[in-house]
UniProtKB/TrEMBL annotation:
<keyword id="KW-0326">Glycosidase</keyword>
<keyword id="KW-0645">Protease</keyword>
<dbReference type="InterPro" id="IPR002818">
    <property type="entry name" value="DJ-1/PfpI"/>
</dbReference>
<dbReference type="GO" id="GO:0008233">
    <property type="term" value="F:peptidase activity"/>
</dbReference>
<dbReference type="Pfam" id="PF01965">
    <property type="entry name" value="DJ-1_PfpI"/>
</dbReference>
<comment type="similarity">
    <text>Belongs to the peptidase C56 family.</text>
</comment>
<protein>
    <submittedName>
        <fullName>Protease I</fullName>
        <ecNumber>3.2.-.-</ecNumber>
    </submittedName>
</protein>
<keyword id="KW-0378">Hydrolase</keyword>
<dbReference type="GO" id="GO:0016798">
    <property type="term" value="F:hydrolase activity, acting on glycosyl bonds"/>
</dbReference>
<dbReference type="InterPro" id="IPR006286">
    <property type="entry name" value="C56_PfpI-like"/>
</dbReference>
<dbReference type="InterPro" id="IPR029062">
    <property type="entry name" value="Class_I_gatase-like"/>
</dbReference>
<feature type="domain" description="DJ-1/PfpI">
    <location>
        <begin position="6"/>
        <end position="167"/>
    </location>
</feature>
<dbReference type="GO" id="GO:0006508">
    <property type="term" value="P:proteolysis"/>
</dbReference>
Length: 177
């Protein structure tokens, strides 16, 4: 239970990739962290690409990044929606400024692109957004998981086991305020 006392935000919106949301959430909880699902509307149930539901326990606007130790951004089509919320971009920018773990998988890189935090950062993602990542200044690698400081990235669902471990490792070694 090396993550006891840690708090993590997991972002949700319609058509998140089911495994890319729930696998990391459960993995972090298994190690003792508290995870809060956050969406545009508190209490709304968002549906994943394959039909798995996720109820937002908090709205984005209720969150204060200083109260959290890390953030998880799922893939699927949700990132294209998430990147349009100013509060989501604010949370990601604040987490980045504080060097708190930011986990992103598959299309989640779109959120980090819109937050403008990828210049010079080595990452991976689904190959489908490689050009977007590189155009945002990132150094893209075709590897299951890439860790560059506090930014942990993965390509797709088969990479979830090493991604979950890498995010938990980063959270465990992150400095708490």
């Amino acid at each position: 239970m090396r993550l006891t006392g840690k708090k993590v935000i997991a972002l949700v919106d319609e058509e998140f990739e089911d495994l890319e949301l729930w696998y990391p959430v459960h993995r972090v909880r298994e190690e003792g962290a508290e995870v809060h699902l956050a969406g545009e509307k508190k209490g709304k149930t968002y549906i994943g690409k394959y039909g798995v539901p996720a109820e937002a326990e908090y709205s984005f606007d209720e969150l204060d990044s200083s109260a959290y130790d890390g953030i998880l951004v799922p893939g699927g089509w949700a990132p294209d929606k998430l990147r349009r919320y100013p509060k989501v971009l604010e949370l990601v920018k604040e987490m980045h400024a504080d060097r708190k773990p930011i986990g992103q998988i598959c299309h989640a890189g779109w959120v980090l692109i819109s937050a403008k935090i990828l210049e010079g950062v080595t990452v991976t993602s689904t190959p489908g957004i490689r050009d977007d990542m590189e155009n945002a200044g990132a150094i893209w690698k075709d590897e299951p998981v890439v860790v560059d400081g506090h930014i942990i990235s993965a390509r797709r669902p088969p990479d979830l086991p090493p991604y979950g471990k890498a995010f938990c490792d980063a959270l465990a070694t992150a400095k708490t305020e």
